Amino acid sequence: MRLSHEATAPKSIDALESEIAAAAREISSTNNGADTLSSSVPDVSWDDIGGLERVKQSLIEMVVWPLEKPHVFRRMGVSPPLGMVLHGPPGTGKTMLAKATAKASGCNFLNLSASDLMKAEIGESEKAITRAFDTARALSPCMVFIDEFQSLFGNRSTAGQTTSRMISQLLMELDALKAVSNDNEVDTYIDQGIAAASAINSIATGRIFVLAATNCLSAIDPAFLQPGRFENVVYVGLPSESERAAILEIQRGKMPWSEDVELVKLVEETKGANAASLIALCQAAAIQAMQRIPLDAPIDDQYITMTDFVAALTKGNIDFQSPEQ
Questions:
Q1: Whether 159 and 77 share a structural domain
Q2: Do 221 and 199 lie in a common domain?
Q3: Residue 275 maps to which CATH number?
Q4: What's the pLDDT band for 322 if we cut at 50, 70, 90?
Q5: Which SUPFAM superfamilies does the record associate with it (predicted)?
Q6: What digits encode the pLDDT tens for the residues 56-106?
Q7: Count of structural domains within the chain
Q8: Which of 18-27, 129-138, 171-180 has the lowest mean pLDDT?
Q9: Is 321 domain-assigned?
Q10: Is the pTM of this model over 0.90?
Q11: Are residues 21 and 101 in the same domain?
Q12: Distance CA 61, CA 58 (A)
């Protein structure tokens, strides 16, 4: 196939959005968007994530506590948050954090992607958002997770018509969640003869929490960051030295490392690596070991050595980023 060198006119944002939506529709042609969305409680725990203790604590306070002790929130006059944004470089564990939070809280986990929400026909993207939140309500308590949030809900000042309509629809859904979680809802239950404690529990178990993840916070439409929406913004940065050690320790517990593997040395050599890269390094070292060890070697004699890690590092396939200032 040959590429044409003829000059072509630049496409408009709306035209590009239409092409993206069409591509997403083709990829998911066997699905019908949010009509076929499914969710489950993820099998990921806090122990699977090395470091990030500050972020974990924020998620516990904002998601787990409102479900575990809704009476305390009402007593203290605190409205549980409806949503939160995790932002930071790629590969730092934002998706893993979302899944671990859902498991810790006992929530169902609804992961929304571009193919779930971006549709080709006018008006269908908005309907997909509505259907997704209808699904979340049916599965409550439920966490709605939207990764790469800025790619779907970027700033309206530079967005096309499809994105602008999607932003408006999601804002409406968030505002609807806020209305349901309001204290007036408790009063409505009480007026219907339901005890206050039962009313509070009913609202808590019907809770929906929206967690957005992005690599570029400034690209998100600012309307989402207003109070009552995603007012809680938490940064997930590159792992520190101690966090890199914790991540590698978790991997060591899952793999047969030789006693000669120098954890301190690996931590020093991986400055600027994100969590995903550290896991990839361990996988690459395991492949090096498999290439080195004879096929007929006893299974109990097969270990990953420091030499395998050095070889994996030397190949240079690990993503190292400049640590944030």
A1: yes
A2: yes
A3: 1.10.8.60
A4: low
A5: P-loop containing nucleoside triphosphate hydrolases
A6: 999 999 999 988 888 888 888 888 888 999 999 999 999 999 999 999 999
A7: 2
A8: 18-27
A9: no
A10: no
A11: yes
A12: 5
- In terms of Cβ atoms closer than 10 Å to its own Cβ (0-12, 13-18, 19+), residue 276 is middle
- Listed in sequence order, the residues at least 6 apart from 120 whose beta carbon sits closer than 8 Å to its beta carbon are 18, 21, 22, 25
Q: Which has the higher per-residue pLDDT, 3 or 284?
A: 284
Q: Structural domain of residue 62, as residue ranges?
A: 13-235
Q: Which residue has the higher pLDDT, 32 or 261?
A: 261
Model confidence over 302-316: pLDDT tens digits?
Answer: 999 999 999 999 987
Q: What is the 3-state secondary structure (H, E, C) of 131-177?
A: HHHHHHHHCCCEEEEECCHHHHCECCCCCCHHHHHHHHHHHHHHHHH
Q: What is the maximum span of the chain, computed from C-alpha positions, in angstroms?
A: 75
Give the mean pLDDT of 155-164.
Answer: 82
Instruction: For residue range 48-60, list pLDDT tens digits in order.
Output: 999 999 999 999 9
**Which tokens go with 164?**
């602008």
286 and 160 in a common domain: no
Q: Give residue 178's pLDDT.
A: 80
* Same domain for 256 and 223: no
319 occurs within a structural domain: no
Task: Tell how many helices (H) and how many strands (E) occur in the chain.
Answer: 15, 5
Give the whole-angstrom CA distance, residue 254 versus residue 314.
23
Q: Are residues 143 and 279 in the same domain?
A: no
Length of the chain, please?
325
152 and 289 co-located in one domain: no
